[in-house]
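The data are quoted verbatim for completeness:
=====
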Amino acid sequence: MINPQPPNWIERFLNWYCAPELLDEIQGDAHELYTERLEEHGKLKADIRYIYDIIRFCRLSNMKRSSNIRKPDSWDILVHSTLKIATRNVRRNKLLFSVKVLSLSLCLAFSLLLAVFVLQEYSYDQHIADHQSIYRIGTKTTTLGAIDEFANAPGLLSEALEEIPEIQYATRVTLWGDLMHVFTVDEISYTQEVGMIVQEEFARMFNLQFIQGNSESLNEPDNIVLTESTAKKFFGDENPVGKIITLNNGFWLDVAGVIEDPLPTSHLKFDLLVSRNSFDVQPTWDELDGYTYCKIRPGVSAEVVESKIIQVYDDHLLEITKHLDINENDSFAPIFQNITSIHLNKELKNDSAVTRDVVNLHFLVILSVVFFFSGFINFLNLTIADITSHLKQISVLQIMGGSSSGIAQSILANTLLGIVVLVPLTSLLFILGINATETFLGITIAPSSLISMPFLLLLGMFLSAYLLSSKICSLLISKSFNLLVALKGKLGTQFSRMGVRESLLTLQLSFSIMIIGLILIMVDQFDFISKADNGYEDKQTLVIRTPVTSFVSGISTFEESLRKLNGVQKVSMSSLDMDSESDDRYFSEIETNDGMKNGYFNHHSWGFEFLDLLKIELVEGRNFDRSRGTDQSGKVFLINESAIEVYGWKDPIGKKVYVEEDKLSYGRVIGVVKDFRTTSMYKEIEPLIVGLTNDKSWNEHVYVKLDAIHSSNLIAEIEEIYFKHFEDVPLSWEYLDSKLANLYYQDTQLRDIFKIGLLISLMVSCLGIFSISALMLILKAKEMSIRKVVGARSYDLFYLHISNFIKFTLLAAICSSPIIYYLSNYWLNNFAYRIDLNVWYFIVPCLITLFIILVTSGVHGLRSSKIDLLKTLKEG
């Protein structure tokens, strides 16, 4: 007889998962099917089908319910209802919700962009291993009563530093950025690359990562190491190691290695490195040459090393000043500077490092904080308006059994719903902002800055502030919540007494007035700069860089060829580079009232036509003259007005001058030119000694004055002549007025950032004012109706609505004016020549804000003047 029982283990599984109230029914049906299959197909197939049925019945609806699961109570139902109401309110008030989230996203994204940029600027060179132990040594000089601070150091200092036990490495770096060197690869020339002359110690000190080769190659003569991007540019996908690069058509360099590109946060920007042993140039103590770096050993105090470097300067003072007639008041001392502080120090002369004005960063920090608070203040304004619009629903929930925390739950529900949209929207705007800053402002945000710990902490702070805002909003409203009044859709009178609206709106308007005022001052300062008299005529002036290869043959024939072109007025060589903050200082000896004095003075040279080419005014004496033999010999000099004042000359004509740059340049002053500007307005005009460029010498630039109306093909003709004289060397030229604009590139970036901030601030302010205006219309509807009953005209009601905003604007102007005055003076004091502040810089922002208020709140003012008396009293 066949056993009709299914397997015991599957029976136990059914008893384990099946709900008791369903067990008998499921088990009975399964057994009945099992018996039928047993007779038809046998036990094996019956068991298999039974197991399949039991597993198939294992569904959520058939499973046991845990006795520990709590049944929904009134609190759960209330929370669910709150979320549902919040969702419905978002759907009903899509515009208000969208405006609230969009305005906050704009402010947060802009604030984050500013913050990550500032953090990146402060992180320069911190990626270098042991950066806290690496220092650059500059030189502070005091000669003739003048104090100068240079980024350079004496040429032999690095060798002397190697003798100090506490110093692990010492090296000297010579930068080629100012000169137009020509690198030729397979008959193709390149001139834009920045090169440095270094030794192996430099690679070790700065932890350069070699992709091919090693640091020892920088000790071998005639070796060059390329960055990865330069190797790709020169040789494409070919292996560059072992290839030959020709330097200035006279030197052959072997590619000995390839290194990773310098990071964007490095103060040294270069494309290639050339071994110092490639050049037979002996450094001296009496010449400030290149940049000297040292790395101190672990555990050594920087103060100890600095004191020993000071001693080195003192020990070699006679060698440093061997050409100088110094007295007891003159001195030479080192400037001991950690590499992490170089980027934010623009005070040193002859500094080729990438620097940023720290004052501009302070402004960006302030702007970031302003937008951070402005966004959240506007968010609070809009949230209060949003909650006020559905106070009736919240009150009904409390009457139906909800606790007094119903408002907090409603605000929290709105906050959580906002996060769902806020986070992705802010992220999208932030990413778009990063791309826009690189495209339009030339600011690159390194990926490493986005994952740095300070930035991640900042993100956490922003998110915490957003969540905290719901708590603040809940506290503000709950303090004035009255159930009976709320059933009418209004907040209690205590809300008005607390001055919440007034405080929030005043802060919002203060931020807007402050940004408008600062923008106006910046625009006027740049307008002042653009219209200021630089002392020469910069329009229609072409500046052509000349390659170092022309040093051998001279460029006089190139000048003569340019003069023959129709449309060219004058041509002259000059060492002046108008968009550089660096000084060309050479050892000079000048005649003073106390005899001959020497020191390092700012010295340049130009040709016979340069003064007339730029229309520089000659105030005394004469200009260089081709017909005079003494001028042809180069034994004559021009000086500027500042030199007269500094050197104490009452009658400068005929005074003796000697310049070390050219041993034949001992001569006399023949003329005085009016002060003209060669650097930005951050610096005062300094004394200048000008020598004559002769036909056989070489200068970095050729200045070409063009006719105001000239042929459209003139530039092409200049290019043709250039390539005839400098075959295969790329032409590099720029208009002089464009070069001058480069002096204020960082300030222009700051101005453009503030302009973007102004647009965002105005938009957010308009939204905030609009929301507060709408809220005031709701709160004062009954008051307006009563006033209308007692005879108030529509004009009176409109003015009553607007007058509150006028009061808030005047209060905001009073609060923001001291801040505008302090911040604008802080920024303007960086300029040696600046605008003066007047009262209009404080009145105009207030007037602009008032106009915005009239536009944004005027709609509600008109509605309040046409309020429906019966409807309002019925609803109230």
